[in-house]
Amino acid sequence: MGLTILLCVFFGSVFLGIPVAFGMGLAALTAFWYEGFPLLITFQRTISGISVFSLLAIPFFVFAGELMLHGGIAIRLVRFASALVGHIRGGLASVNIFSSMLFGGISGSAIADISALGSLLIPVMKERGYRPDYAVNVTVTSSIAGIVIPPSHNMIIYAIAAGGGISISKLFLAGVVPGILMCSCLALAAYFLARKHNYPAEPFPGVKAVAFSAASAIPGLVTAVIIVGGVLSGVFTVTESGAFGAIYALVLTTFFYRSLSWEGFKTAVVSSVKTTAMVMILIGFASSFAYLLALYQVPTKLGNLLIGISENKVVILLMINVILLILGMIMDMAALLLICTPIFLPIAKSIGMDPTQFGIMMLINLGLGLCTPPVGTCLFVGCAVGKIKIEQALKSIWPFYLALLLALVLITYVPGFSLWLPSLLD
User: Comparing C-alpha atoms, which of 350, 337, 389 is closest to residue 148?
Assistant: First the structure.
């Protein structure tokens, strides 16, 4: 009965429009009250959930990404991508995808990717004769590369939700190849659609232009090198790397590029504080919620249910993916990482799946939810930037969605995509 109350209060809160974080907190408080536990336990579990040193890296990652977003880094990355791949058929789509891959490695945020690159590239693509829905769909689907290409604060959330026993440095490395694979699949889909609709190719600007644009973009890309390289080398902890990355981003945009205005700095600070506050509240209440799920033995019961349906590894992973895809359509990604990781990770381990590979699979899977209604945060933002209706985008997004599903299948069933680079640390 306690589990029923927990879930009913939670889903009822979400249905009524209460933010997911507060819905989890209210559900946990109600369940503790029903079980006769002191209500103080709810707040103790909430505070203990955010009293983790590694979580300090999140505000630094977010702040570094915001500084890059408002400091003129995006336009330099677009110029570099345009010089490098713009001459391919439907070149601006390839530029969009390649820019997302580069910018995602700096910002770690899909929304920041769409806001920065979408506002630059979608209008240009429309001017060059690309259909508005095509431009929006390329931008939206490629933006989720930032979720898996390091550094990504979602990887830290996954590691915390998994109990802290997973190496964040290995997670960072594990996301590189899958991120490139995702963008490659999207680029192929974009290319074939470009040929079908006879979209133009941009003229090749020459080797000198490529070198010049690369020289302008490389200082910005060094931000990701500092953060990831510092962790992998053992020089910094994840938190220290995030702090150094934020300092570097501030110095770069203020004194080197001189493109960060005072208004841009204030916007970056305010946005970082808001994002960090939302994430921390979510993590805290999710800790109480996850404690009750463990108390009611939900992971064990669900694992027994799935294994009862089939003991085949392929089938079990397929069922997990389908469940995550459905949940990703209706709930926030961070909340699902915190709720679903303690449930599904033990099942994945029981069938021999590496926790690092499972984390990358989960991140990509939930990233698809950002492109899918009714939540579909990235889809809503992309349509707003592109000034088209969501229905218009949905009619033609399926080739890109299929490309991402293909990447998800490969990453789910071929461990090497996720584990090859991390194995080099062993």
Answer: 337
First to last CA, the chain: 46
- What tokens appear for 251 in the block? 């110095």
d(CA 79, CA 285): 43
Q: pLDDT (tens digit, 9 = 90+) per residue, 198-237?
A: 887 777 777 888 888 888 888 877 877 777 777 777 777 8
* Token pair for 288: 């109480």
Give the number of other CB atoms < 10 A from CB of residue 167. 15
Residues 6+ apart with CB under 8 A from 230: 236, 240, 241, 244, 245
- Average pLDDT, whole number, for the chain? 83
* Spatial separation of the C-alpha atoms in residues 169 and 156, rounded to whole Å: 10
Other beta carbons within 10 Å of 206: 10
Residue 13's contacts (CB-CB under 8 Å, 6 or more residues apart) are: 22, 23, 26, 27
Q: Which of 70, 156, 141, 136 is nearest to 110 (CA)?
A: 141
The whole model's pTM is what? Answer: 0.84
pLDDT in tens, 148-174: 888 778 888 898 888 777 888 888 889
Q: 19 to each of 25, 26, 244, 291, how far by Cα in Å?
A: 10, 11, 33, 20
The amino acid occupying position 93 is A
Please give the C-alpha separations between residue 379 and each of 134, 140, 310, 385, 402, in angstroms, as whole numbers. Answer: 13, 6, 35, 10, 16
Query: CA angle 375-378-382, nearest 5°?
Result: 125
DSSP labels for 170-229?
HHHHHTHHHHHHHHHHHHHHHHHHHHHHT---PPP--HHHHHHHHHHHHHHHHHHHHHHH
Given a contact cutoff of 8 angstroms between Cβ atoms, the answer to whether 77 and 102 are in contact is yes
Q: Are 299 and 343 in contact (CB under 8 A)?
A: yes
What is the DSSP secondary structure assignment for residue 18, as one 8-state letter? Answer: -
